[in-house]
Amino acid sequence: MNETSDRDVLERLAAPELRGNPYPLLRWLRENEPVHRTEAGFFLISRHADVQWALSRTGDALVVPDREEMARQFPAAGDHAAIGTALEIFGAMLRPGYAALRRMMSRDLARSRVARVGESILVKGAQLIDGMAERLHDGEAVDFHQEVSRPLTLAVFAELFGIDEVERDCVATDVLATACALEAVSTEALEAADAASERVESYFRLLIADRRRSPRDDLMTALVAAHDEDVDRRGDRLILGLLWVLWLTGFDSSAAGLDRGMQAILDHPDQLHWLRGDDQQAAAFVEEVLRYDSVILLTPIPRIAARDIEFGDRMLPAGAMARMVIAAANRDPSVFPDPDRFDPSRDNRPTLSMGYGPYYCNGAALVRAEMSIVLTMIHDRFPDLVAAGEPVWTEAIGTANGIRGLDRFPIRMGGTR
Ligand code: HEM
After folding, report:
1. Residue range 398-412: average pLDDT?
2. Which of 51, 52, 361 has most ligand 1 atoms within 8 Å of CB, for mutation?
3. N or C: which end of the chain has fewer CB within 10 A?
4. What residues contact 238, with CB distance under 8 A and at least 6 apart?
5. Mean pLDDT over all residues of the chain?
6. Domains, the chain, ranges and CATH?
């Protein structure tokens, strides 16, 4: 690969041959252009120290763009409901009540809810794995993404919000179509995204109204209750904004996390003893999966430089929009020695996979539980899985919600059975 090519970095990241392995390009970026201006006009920050600093200083040195700033960045918003939705989300994120809602949600997710959902992950995981067992034993290929990662993470996510089986697929598909709008993959995608975002918004409104009328034991009810007790009551924009953020960042990324775990199982058979040990060893395996092949390419929340910022000898000018390249920072050799080696025994405390600072991921505990439980279970049931073809990456490259995800992931049993 010619890293000095004239093509824009984002365009090169979208190239099919780099979707699975963007790391040579990201290394070039980190070493040569650690503060890189893309043709789209925003900057990519890729060294670990710079990314960590920028994430921790969000709120003073860098700020999350407000609704007006986003409207400047996306002038098509007036014509497109999907882009307008994104603007509303940023508007909501900056209102004071949003932080209170997030705090409540973090407490809820970190404690009792994840413990209770853990039981569902076990039951649903076993059910999905049973569903493909016969075909695997018969030597057939199965699609791990469509048959396990997606349905499992969607079921768990839908349970949090009390969304039933009939509705959950439609909501998930529509949310992802809306995310594509910001990448403007195509005019057709943008038009489809408009309709999709309107359907999701109406559905979220129905859910909110329903939980007000008939509270249940789910995160959705807890959010509505917290909103109505503590937060300003100017309509439901805040809670709608949070629901959008949760669905845009939470469900697809968890499925991608499980897919990365399966890829690690296929690629690193010498490290699988980590999945046959205790909970801490499984957790170390999961942490290394999340570092080694980052689910998040770029931070989903953009930041604007509040002043000129020097990163070493590079400058991010005041007013510039920046995205942090988590996938590059997680392979920075100044923090992770021999970063291209998959090694669950390494010290992964500095990993930035789940963000850092004020916008640290609210779903981190849930994702880690999901990955540990499912990867351990599947390795226990099928210790000799192999790839059954190339995985198929999603069309969106992850510049909108930051996620590098798969559409298909064929696997089968190895030859030893
Ligand atoms: C493997 C799966 C996941 C990864 C890698 C991931 C990663 C991240 C990262 C890097 C951020 C920081 C964004 C930034 O600073 O721009 C973030 C934020 C966030 N994540 Fe996750 N996430 C995952 C799953 C989830 C799940 C399951 C949920 C919900 C249950 C969730 C909810 C959120 C929310 C709400 C935010 C925004 C926080 C805020 O508004 O301050 N994430 N995530």
Report:
1. 84
2. 361
3. C
4. 92, 95, 97, 98, 101, 227, 231, 232
5. 88
6. 67-296+341-413 (1.10.630.10)
